[in-house]
DNA sequence: TTGAAAGCGTTACCAC
DNA sequence: GTGGTAACGCTTTCAA
């Protein structure tokens, strides 16, 4: 009610609306009054009047994975720079997504961003029915209001196969996660490149995206044979695998076993691990997400963000130099 | 406008208000109509009418520290269970807090939760002036609308000194973080217990709460002397210290150096580290925060949540058994 | 450029 | 137990 201190509410509204026409005199009066009263316009009625909240919801889970929390941090910062607020909800599976989104809809959030993969057409349909734009940071079903920004896993994974071969790998292993689009893309990219190079077989084990999963998967891999070059679909699992290989199996890395991950989480560069991996350009990913938030026309294809190879000690076997 | 499908808006409002008096018949009619139209009450006008948003804001930084993201995860889940939403904003320093909170105020958030320590009276005053309840997960200035829920650092740190002595430590070291209330409490608790045990000197080095800080601090510690028992104010720094001690200094843990941390982050139990530490009971902490959100009377003293000792290999020297 | 007035979709209060 | 009606504090449209 800052309008007691000057003129009409229209004037106040206009001074606080970016591109409105107010005379300098008017604006000055209003600003002075606002400062005196410590007045700040309430955003709630604005949302009601305009239908836009400037709130972006993020539905995420897996906070144990530094990759997700890194993305979350970049996202929360860039959203704020873009003048938007973030509402955060915890969601473990895409199956729960439509429930979460419909709840969020009641707050009139402008869009939902999620690292979850939308795995089925039925979930996608339920989501589209809610009429809220969704940007997923994962491969999966898209179309309608669902858009995707993904890491270019196939290209990177082919590169991994290449590097492991060059570094002297001869018996390959792959540690993946539960069935999911990214899991499949990474394994395919890896397998294809291997087969181009004449390697048509490799051991595989499925972990759970986390450290323990990688630890167990590595042991399984060695029950099947004696791989000397392992590609893991994410760093956290790779670190678990490294520990299993070193402490449980008593093998050396990279001398006995080469290993690579994906994500470039902070721990991967700790000297104990010094893991070769692919860096996902988080700012680029988030920028792409923000750009998608502005778009309205259905997306033709997911935006692919290239990942860059980070070579560290786990792939630098001396034979390479020899 | 589900009211086209039955009766008055008051009736609709009542069916969607938990403790309201509606006849089963009425409720049935409304629910049916809502289901048919896919109607869900818009929460924005409700906020405007009631003044309560059921939104709790969280102002946090330091996502690189798993302790914070663990707390965040528990918080986001429990808030939801309590029927509230979380708005997340990134904030590195308490100095920025009043700016952030006043911005949040425009969304009519019910309260702000932050792991940041409110270090000065002037920041506290500025915050109180905004008339928004604040719960900090850290020691510091409280009073007015500012409440605190903290880990009982002093007791735990005394316990650390005790354990390191019993395990055979004779020359002590402490790795802390930048000046902050928790840093001081942990160092004091540790130092006091040492001095009770007749140890009046210890080496100290200041890191930066993170891995690199701990790594460098450990090296500094060993430039000052040759400590054989080190207490770190948090796990992340302890892990950095462990790597420095092992790879750079070539010493063994626990044979040559005992070490302890605080927080019990996931990585501390990885076999490579197997770090003794203090577990902060995150659900208990968050429950206490939620309880504080309901309180209105000024808080007399910060709520202290005990931390429990987790003994692992880094403090189990064989001399202990001897 | 400015002011008046009508909405926005709820809740809250008051009769019935 | 129910319906009517006045807020809530903005934006928007329309005249001046």
Automatic annotation (TrEMBL), chains A, B:
Q: Which Pfam families match?
A: LacI, Peripla_BP_3
Keyword Ribonucleoprotein tagged:
no
| Alphabetical UniProt keywords | DNA-binding, Repressor, Transcription, Transcription regulation
Q: Which Gene3D superfamilies match?
A: 3.40.50.2300, lambda repressor-like DNA-binding domains
Name one molecular function that GO assigns to this entry. Answer: DNA binding
* Domain HTH lacI-type: start-end pairs: 1-50
Please give the coiled-coil regions recorded for this protein. Answer: none
Instruction: Specify the protein name.
Output: LacI family DNA-binding transcriptional regulator
Q: Which lineage do the record's taxonomy fields give for this organism?
A: Bacteria, Pseudomonadati, Pseudomonadota, Alphaproteobacteria, Sphingomonadales
């Amino acid at each position: 009610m800052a309008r007691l201190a000057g003129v009409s509410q229209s004037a106040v509204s206009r001074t606080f609306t970016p591109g409105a026409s107010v005379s300098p005199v008017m604006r000055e009066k209003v600003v002075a009054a606002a400062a005196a009263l410590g007045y700040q316009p309430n955003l709630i009625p604005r949302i009601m009047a305009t239908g836009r909240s400037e709130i972006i919801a993020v539905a995420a889970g897996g906070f144990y994975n530094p990759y997700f929390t890194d993305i979350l941090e970049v996202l929360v910062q860039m959203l704020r720079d873009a003048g938007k607020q973030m509402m955060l909800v915890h969601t473990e599976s895409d199956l729960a997504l439509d429930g979460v989104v419909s709840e969020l809809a009641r707050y009139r959030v402008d869009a939902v961003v999620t690292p979850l993969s939308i795995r089925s057409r039925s979930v996608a349909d339920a989501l589209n029915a809610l009429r809220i734009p969704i940007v997923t940071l994962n491969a999966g079903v898209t179309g309608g209001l669902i858009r995707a920004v993904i890491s270019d896993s196939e290209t990177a994974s082919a590169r991994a196969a290449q590097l492991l071969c060059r570094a002297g790998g001869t018996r390959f292993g792959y540690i993946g996660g539960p069935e999911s689009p990214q899991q499949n893309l990474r394994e395919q990219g890896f397998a294809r490149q291997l087969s181009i190079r004449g390697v048509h077989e490799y051991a595989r084990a499925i972990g759970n995206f986390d450290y323990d999963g990688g630890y167990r998967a590595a042991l399984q891999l060695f029950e099947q044979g004696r791989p000397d070059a392992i590609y893991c679909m994410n760093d956290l699992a790779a670190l678990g695998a490294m520990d299993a290989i070193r402490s449980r199996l008593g093998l050396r890395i990279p001398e006995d076993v080469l290993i690579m991950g994906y994500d470039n989480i902070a721990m991967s560069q700790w000297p104990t691990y010094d893991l070769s991996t692919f860096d996902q350009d988080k700012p680029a990913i988030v920028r792409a997400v923000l750009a998608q938030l502005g778009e309205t026309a259905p997306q033709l294809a997911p935006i692919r963000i290239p990942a860059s190879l980070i070579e560290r000690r786990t792939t630098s076997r001396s034979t390479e130099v020899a």
